[in-house]
Amino acid sequence: TLECYEEWSDDVKYYRGQVTSTPGCPSFPLSQWSLLLEGRAPDLEKVLSGHYSTTIDPKQTQSLGKGFEITLSQPTTTHKVKTYGDWSVATDLWVEALTFIMPWKEDELRGYKRYLSGFFVDVHYSLHSRIIDFDKACRLKIEGQKYLRFDSINEFRRLEITHLSSLGMVAYSELQQLSGSSGGGDKGFGKGSGGGRKPSRSDVARGEACLNWNRGSCEKSAPDCPRFHVCSKC
Question: 228: buried, middle or exposed (CB in 10 Å: 19+, 13-18, 0-12)?
Fold first, then answer.
């Protein structure tokens, strides 16, 4: 794998032309082929947009030598990866493209998708954006450490905590933003931070996860609910 990336990176345009002119080559945005050949993380939103696009940007021409050339069109980015369905479609397209140039990685990549899909099943749909961000972080980690495999799950444990755990920095930052937006200007309790007001029962509950929301039965919006709308398990 590392030897392939080293060779392809020497002349990405040439090898990209060789790949895209090969019979059976899957449909994939030209810019994303370049990233794959360099061992870099693809942009799934551009991959998804390329799959559904009916409009195209200016065409790009790739010379194949001996008077032959191939013209490829670049789709505009119109589809955002927001749901599990979006992510699954884009990931399948990425796996298909990467295994076309590296067929020995198919089991590895399928294992990675099963690993990520498990989070989409277990985590409330309103928090799926965190899983999508976690996936981006994993891909960037592999991009920076190309000797790692996508099915090296233990290498992603710290990123799991950061993006998916209620104790992680991402979740903590979101909770801080919610607290600030619903605090009515009060920064705390006691002297100098609210006139000595004692914390109410709802103030105390504000630090807890809403069980009704986790069961899908909370009738209040996030700012109105006395508890946080976050996963109570992670």
Answer: buried
Q: At what angle do helices 106-122 and 84-101 cross, to 10 degrees?
A: 170
Distance CA 163, CA 185 (A): 28
Task: Give the residue with greater pLDDT, 212 vs 76.
Answer: 212
Report the distance separating Cα 107 and Cα 150, nearest Å. Answer: 10
Read off the amino acid at residue 229: H
60: CB partners within 8 A, 6+ apart: 30, 71, 72, 73, 74
pLDDT at 228: 74
The radius of gyration computed from the CA coordinates of the chain, to the nearest angstrom, equals: 23
Q: Estimate the crossing angle of helix 128-144 against helix 84-101, to 10 degrees.
A: 20
- Token digits for 3? 């030897």
| Per-residue tokens: 119 | 């989070």
Task: Let me know how many helices (H) and strands (E) the chain has, helices first.
Answer: 11, 2
pLDDT at 139 over 80: yes
CA 63 to chain centroid, in Å, comes to 34
C-alpha pair distances (Å), 135 with each of 50, 131, 198: 20, 6, 42
| pLDDT, position 71 | 58
189 or 128, greater pLDDT: 128
